[in-house]
Design brief:
4 helices, 6 strands, six-stranded mixed sheet, about 35% helix, actin binding, Severin
Length: about 130
């Protein structure tokens, strides 16, 4: 599975310039490559992010999670989410699962990985507990 250059470029912009809150990536099966599907503006929040994931299709996503430490120090962690809902096609799940590690390696700077099959597996509480 090829990775479109735009994926790496947009991720770099998220990581270095905080240009986006999140990025949703989609595998274009006909072209056999991963492309950028959605870019979340910095002002958008977690609810906008979850709303951008389709309920019955797999996606990869990157989310820039900002939080305060116990000493009230603002920090952020970049999460990689492998979104694979139970209702998606088996073939799609297999393609996303088999391509995930290679795609993730292309995005240098991912700090935490989450696998999610339903929204509760990537709730804000999950982000908070994994970020510390």
């Amino acid at each position: 599975m090829a990775v479109h250059d735009d994926c790496k470029l947009r991720f770099l912009e998220l990581k270095t310039k905080r240009a986006y809150r999140f990025i949703v990536f989609k595998i274009e099966e006909k072209q056999k490559q991963v492309i950028v599907e959605t870019l979340g503006e910095p002002a958008q929040n977690y609810d906008d992010f979850t709303a951008s994931l389709p309920a019955d299709e797999c996606r990869y996503a990157v989310y820039d999670f900002e939080f305060l430490t116990e000493g009230n120090v603002p920090k952020s962690r970049i999460f990689f989410i492998a979104w694979s809902p139970d209702t998606s096609r088996v073939r799609s799940k297999m393609i996303y699962a088999s391509s995930k590690d290679r795609f993730k390696r292309e995005l240098d700077g991912i700090q935490i990985e989450l696998q999610a099959t339903d929204p509760t597996e990537m709730g804000l509480d999950v982000f908070k507990s994994r970020a510390n």
